[in-house]
């Protein structure tokens, strides 16, 4: 092969390789996570995801099969990860790469997560929040909790609207740009209690919460 042809040949390879690896498909952060399933084969459980092949090694005879819908879904958006009840409703508003909102709602407990382009202080956010709720209806206390491997300090707001007690916990997730705000809303029977949904959800968040992107 001549020098000119060799250069041309390798040039084609480089261009072809570049065309092959360049496309990167972004995750659609407005799309609700898939339901996870568990298939039980002769008493042993295997996790499944819809439309994703699963290889199971071994020999099986006289199979006893049981397919169960998973109790949890995995939230992996906006640079954080945790699991939540699969029964929760899903809302997402993706305005841009730097402005996003998710709301996961159960019967009594709700998770709200905001990614905002501008830096905001906890004090300013809570002040604005209490003004919207009505300062005369709002009591603000300090709170702290541990999610995953880290401890977080936040604000707990007791709000009474039209005779209904609501409890909000507001935490700021560390980030290099803008602001990331995680809010838990609970509708307990009384302000000195928590709903069962909150008890179960917070237990999972404390165990499974991760920051995927600083």
Describe this structure in words.
There is one protein chain. By secondary structure, the protein is of the alpha+beta class. Helix content is about 20%, strand content about 45%. It is built from three helices and 13 strands; from the N terminus they run H-E-E-E-E-E-E-E-E-H-E-E-E-E-H-E. The strands form three sheets. A seven-stranded antiparallel β-sheet has the order 6-7-8-12-11-10-9, with helices on both faces. A three-stranded antiparallel β-sheet has the order 2-1-3, with no helix packed on it. A three-stranded antiparallel β-sheet has the order 4-5-13. Strand 1 and strand 2 (about 45-50) form a beta hairpin. The longest helix has 19 residues, at about 5-20. It is globular and about 70 Å long. About 20% of the residues are buried. The model is unreliable at about 1-25 (pLDDT under 50).
Give the helix/strand class: alpha+beta
Reading the helices and strands in chain order gives: HEEEEEEEEHEEEEHE
Low-confidence stretches: 2-24
- Give the number of helices: 3
- What is the CA-CA span between the terminal residues? 51 Å
Throw out a few tags for this protein.
single chain, 214 residues, alpha+beta, 3 helices, disordered N terminus
Summarize the structure.
The protein contains 3 helices and 13 strands.
Layout: helices, strands, pairs:
Elements: H1 3-21, E1 36-41, E2 44-49, E3 65-69, E4 72-77, E5 80-85, E6 89-96, E7 99-105, E8 109-116, H2 122-133, E9 138-147, E10 150-161, E11 164-172, E12 179-186, H3 196-208, E13 210-211
């Amino acid at each position: 092969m001549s020098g000119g042809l060799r250069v041309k040949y390798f040039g084609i390879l480089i261009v072809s390789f570049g065309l092959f690896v360049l496309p990167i498909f972004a995750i659609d952060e407005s799309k609700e996570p898939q339901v996870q399933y568990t298939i039980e084969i002769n008493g042993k459980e295997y996790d499944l995801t819809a439309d994703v092949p699963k290889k199971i090694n071994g020999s099986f005879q006289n199979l006893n099969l049981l397919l169960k819908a998973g109790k949890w879904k995995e939230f992996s958006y906006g640079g954080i990860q945790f699991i939540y009840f699969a029964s929760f409703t899903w809302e997402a508003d993706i305005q841009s790469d730097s402005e996003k909102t998710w709301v996961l709602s159960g019967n009594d407990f709700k998770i709200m997560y905001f990614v905002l382009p501008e830096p905001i202080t906890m004090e300013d956010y809570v002040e604005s929040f209490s003004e919207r709720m009505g300062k005369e209806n709002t009591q603000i206390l300090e709170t702290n909790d541990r999610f995953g491997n880290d401890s977080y300090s936040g604000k707990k707001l007791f709000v009474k609207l039209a005779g209904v007690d609501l409890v909000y916990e507001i935490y700021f997730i560390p980030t290099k740009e803008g602001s990331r705000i995680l809010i838990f809303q609970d509708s307990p029977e009384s302000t000195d209690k928590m709903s069962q949904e909150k008890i179960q959800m917070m237990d999972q968040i404390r165990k499974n919460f991760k920051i995927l992107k600083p």
